[in-house]
What we know:
Strand order of the largest sheet: 2-1-6-5-4-3
Low-confidence stretches: 139-145
Shape: globular
Oligomer: single chain
Strand content: 35-45%
Number of strands: 6
CATH topology: Nuclear Transport Factor 2, Chain: A
Helix content: 25-40%
Order of helices and strands: HHEEHEEEEH
CATH class: Alpha Beta
Number of domains: 1
Mean pLDDT: 93
CATH architecture: Roll
Number of helices: 4
Amino acid sequence: MPSSNIEIVQNIYDAFLRGDIPTVVEGLSPDATWALVGREQDVPFAGIRNGKTGATDFFRILAETVDVGSFVPREYLAAEDKVFVWGDWQWTVRRNGVGGKAEWLHVFVMKNGKVTSWRSHTDTAQIAATLHAPASGTDRRAAGR
């Protein structure tokens, strides 16, 4: 059993990296909010979602939209009931093969060992640009990206 909020968050990231979304969602309180800060009309997986069902929808839409090439949490900081994590990720858009990369800041709010709120802050304009770009000439997935 994790002994700190940072360990709980690290376990959630480990589950995400394994593709174990049910374990990620199990780490949420039933009334949790889950949000990539941004406009859903620009980035389909942006916006606020409610509860475990909302978080599950976020991961489904993310997987339908992009292939995550790398996802690296780099630094953790805990303060009171919050855990702040800085990191970066790379993705390839499924529809057009265009890739991108960005830094992010995740803010988790914790209560009784469960996530009650998650906010991801990143450059959604950069994500949107890759989503709406014309198809690339190279299939990066085929190139062993």
